[in-house]
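Tokens in:
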């Protein structure tokens, strides 16, 4: 019996060691197209590595922006600075409330904003959070919050990517520098990503219903409660998307009603009359012409509030 138990233990240890070695080799040597359950995306699109590197050195801002790619592509830090507001953009690709919560645990006290602008694109409340977890794992320091996230998501892709990231930091341990400009994007101080000017070519989009993920809604509600308990002023913003995209949602009115129940909310798709072809570079994202118009309208709302300014 003892020999049997010892054999089982030896087998498990050997299997674990083999899995770790094989995973690292697979992630390092095999092309991404063949790694469906491992996606390590350090320095991927969106400049999250650069954004979080800057966040670690930034203290006390007037405005903190949160949300998905509509955030880091939609709120231009230069525009707000020109209008006497310091800001930082903590947006990330497909960021769901699960990732927002982690980023706030790491950076909220340090950034200490007077106002939070939380971009609430409907699709983020339909996702499981796996894809955006991979971006965060690869481009920030992993800590207890990362491991909690992996446990809550309980997905092989997140587990594998987290393990690979851990091994990569130990074995490779080489410094990484992300280019300021790449693939038509330019990183701007404050967390904004400026897209090389281009124009959307509108195409029809199939109608669909927003199917809410209750876990994401629950975490979102917790975040809103935390803003209120800490007396942090906040605004919820539905950033502009193309008209064809916006009209493709069957239950948009239901979504607006839900967002209003959480706090002050503005749907800029109803407030601005933008052109699908002139003001967007794809159906989801504004080009710089659209960003300028959007930010000017948002500024009008911000200027009506009393914001305790960050020291110069």
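Residues out:
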């Amino acid at each position: 019996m003892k020999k049997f138990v010892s054999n089982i233990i030896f087998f498990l240890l050997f299997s674990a060691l083999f899995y770790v070695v094989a995973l690292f080799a697979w992630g390092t040597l095999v092309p991404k197209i063949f790694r469906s359950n491992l996606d390590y995306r350090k320095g991927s699109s969106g400049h999250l590595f650069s954004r979080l590197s800057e966040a670690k050195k930034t203290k006390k801002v007037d405005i903190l922006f949160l949300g998905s790619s509509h955030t880091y592509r939609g709120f231009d830090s230069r525009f707000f600075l020109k209008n006497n507001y310091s800001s930082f953009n903590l947006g990330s690709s497909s960021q769901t409330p699960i990732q927002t919560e982690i980023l706030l645990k790491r950076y909220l006290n340090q950034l200490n904003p007077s106002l939070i602008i939380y971009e609430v694109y409907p699709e983020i409340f339909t996702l499981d959070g796996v894809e955006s977890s991979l971006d965060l794992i690869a481009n920030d320091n992993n800590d207890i919050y990362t491991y909690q996230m992996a446990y809550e998501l309980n997905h092989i892709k997140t587990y594998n990517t987290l393990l690979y990231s851990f091994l990569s930091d130990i074995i490779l341990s080489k410094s990484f520098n992300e280019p300021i400009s790449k693939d038509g994007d330019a990183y701007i101080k404050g967390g904004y990503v400026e897209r090389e000017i281009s124009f959307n070519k509108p195409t029809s989009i199939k109608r669909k219903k927003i199917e809410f993920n209750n876990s994401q809604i629950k975490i979102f509600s917790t975040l809103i409660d935390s803003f209120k308990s800490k007396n942090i002023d906040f605004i919820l913003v539905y950033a502009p998307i193309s008209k064809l995209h916006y009209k493709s949602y069957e239950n948009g009115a239901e979504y607006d009603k839900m967002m209003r129940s959480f706090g002050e909310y503005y749907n800029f798709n109803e407030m601005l009359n933008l052109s699908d072809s002139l003001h967007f570079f794809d159906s989801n994202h504004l080009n710089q012409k659209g960003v300028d118009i959007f930010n000017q309208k948002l500024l009008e709302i911000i200027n009506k509030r009393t914001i305790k300014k960050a020291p110069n």
